[in-house]
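Working notes for the structural subgroup meeting. M.R. asked for a predicted model of this chain before we commit to crystallization trials. I am recording the input and output together here so anyone reviewing the notebook later can reproduce the run.

Input as submitted:
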Amino acid sequence: MLSARLLRRRGRVQWTDIGRQVPDLGDLGTLTFDADQYAATLTPLAELRSCGD
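Returned structure, recorded in token form:
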């Protein structure tokens, strides 16, 4: 299982503390995404999920 801490600030979404429970994954550092692009990518996926419930 992979997890991350998500922070949203100044128009960016950051994933930190990635994969802490996954052995031998190594340090992935911090991944940073544009907040608008992040939302545009996830919104259709959330809508698909709600259709399946």
